[in-house]
Amino acid sequence: MEQKHGILLLNKPKGMSSAFAIGRLKRLGQKKIGHAGTLDPMATGLLIVLLGEATKISGYLLENGEKTYSGTLELGKITDTWDAEGKIIEERDTSTITKEMLENAVKDWLGTSMQEVPPYSAAKHEGQALYKLARAGKETPVKIKEIHISHAEIQWVNLPCMRFRVTCSSGSYIRSLAHSLGIRLGCGAMLTELTREYSHPFTLQNAITLEDLQENPEILNSKVISIENGLPNWRIIELSDREALAIKNGNPTFIRENDFTVNEKVFLRYQRNLLALAEAKQKDNKNIWQVLRGLVTQ
Question: Looking at the predicted structure, is the pLDDT value of residue 55 above 90?
Answer without folding.
Answer: yes
